[in-house]
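Hi all, posting the design record for the shared folder.

TITLE: backbone redesign
STEP: 1 of 1
STRUCTURE INPUT:
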């Protein structure tokens, strides 16, 4: 692994492309970012199996349960695009380290929550911190690699991150059964501090993370004008729709469906979420390689089709054993989409607007995350779980139709 780096992202990418494509050719900072991301995602996932259940206990009326999940995304809606511009001007490191500090504060606030309102505040602060972290993190990874390795490197990176989610969901479920929900958030707080320590002390990140694109006089309005394109619009709509479904149908409705309707324990729900994450990890790593070979669109559309079939399977009220298998394949389909969609975004915008485009992409993603729990709780409470999953299928089909209109992308600079 390298101990020093060329000054520009282009020089770094050229150096990498001259070497073998194995992990030994990846710079040291890549692995430091990976470790920080792993602990962040693991901390985020500790509450995945019980968060709506805990929120429902704090507010038995259930009115604010959706807001607990939505709060994660509310403040992010207004900060993603400005933070993308600031990242270009101030450097990635400042936003990345600051985001981790905010995430740690949010996790600690959740651990002290004795009312649903404090839980909502903690979730909002935590979500804002992770937004700043992941925006800067993703931009750094995409900067480091050229198109011939970009999806592979990002897919491997995200696959390792999601191992944290694979571990976090069942650990959080079992720990919650022993010491209670609030103590789990203290464990998440410790993990956020570990990520902060790794990022703050990284010499490589201190060097490359302070590089900027130079002073910019562009206003937000000018940034938007440079980002007008149908391909980018479709990509952002897909980002919105995916997070709408993930946070609404999966993170909010799915645990309630499993616990209240199928009478599955929190511990077992954690295992189901873990298997779902395992599928996501496998697909994220492998689809990055195939995406570089066959193109982004075929991987995205195939993944959406697999997800749609799995959502229909949920409507059939499967046994808990079959749910493990369905969850695995649903996660696998999501993993096929996850990496290829962000790389597709990176390749359909002008080079001078890539970080701003990531900010816009993540703004749509956060808007979907905010609205998803509120949107999908309506059919769940009034019509039942089947209506929720069928609604998700309809949204996926619409996404496939829109993605078909994007010009084919293979490997491009």
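Okay, here is what came back for every position:
SEQUENCE:
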């Amino acid at each position: 692994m390298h101990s020093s780096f060329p000054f520009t992202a282009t020089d770094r990418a050229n150096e990498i492309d001259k070497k073998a494509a194995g992990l030994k050719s990846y710079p040291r900072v890549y692995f430091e970012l990976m470790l920080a991301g792993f602990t962040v995602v693991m901390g985020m996932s500790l509450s995945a199996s019980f968060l709506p259940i805990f929120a429902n206990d704090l507010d038995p009326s259930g009115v604010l349960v959706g807001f607990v999940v939505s709060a994660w995304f509310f403040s992010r809606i207004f900060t993603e695009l400005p933070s993308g511009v600031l990242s270009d001007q101030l450097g990635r490191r400042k936003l990345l380290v600051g985001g981790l500090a905010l995430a740690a504060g949010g996790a600690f606030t959740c651990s002290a929550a004795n009312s649903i309102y404090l839980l909502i505040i903690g979730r909002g602060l935590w979500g804002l911190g992770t937004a700043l972290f992941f925006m800067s993190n993703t931009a750094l990874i995409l900067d480091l690699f050229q198109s011939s390795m970009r999806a592979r490197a990002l897919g491997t990176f995200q696959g390792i991150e999601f191992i944290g989610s694979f571990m976090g969901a069942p650990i959080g479920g079992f720990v919650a059964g022993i010491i209670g929900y609030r103590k789990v958030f203290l464990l998440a707080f410790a993990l956020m501090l570990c990520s902060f320590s790794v990022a703050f002390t990284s010499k490589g990140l201190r060097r490359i993370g302070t590089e900027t694109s130079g002073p910019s006089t562009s206003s937000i309005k000018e940034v938007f004008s440079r980002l007008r394109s149908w391909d980018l619009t479709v990509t952002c709509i897909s980002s919105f729709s995916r997070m709408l479904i993930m946070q609404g149908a999966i993170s909010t409705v799915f645990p309630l469906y499993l616990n209240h309707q199928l009478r599955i324990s929190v511990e077992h729900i954690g295992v189901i979420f873990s298997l779902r994450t395992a599928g996501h990890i496998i697909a994220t790593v492998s689809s990055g390689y195939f995406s570089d070979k066959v193109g982004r669109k075929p991987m995205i559309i195939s993944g959406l089709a697999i997800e749609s079939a799995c959502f229909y399977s949920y409507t059939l009220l499967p046994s808990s054993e079959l749910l493990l298998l369905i969850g695995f394949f649903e996660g696998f389909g999501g993993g096929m989409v996850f990496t290829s969609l962000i790389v597709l975004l990176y390749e359909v915008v002008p080079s001078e607007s890539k970080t701003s485009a990531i900010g816009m992409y993540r703004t749509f993603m956060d808007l979907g995350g905010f609205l998803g729990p509120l949107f999908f709780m309506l059919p769940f409470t009034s019509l039942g779980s089947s209506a929720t999953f069928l609604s998700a299928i309809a949204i996926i089909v619409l996404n496939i139709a829109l993605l078909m209109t994007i010009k084919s992308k293979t490997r491009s600079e």
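COMMENT: Residues 1-23, 212-219, 409-413 have pLDDT under 50 and may be disordered.
Let me know if anyone wants the other runs.
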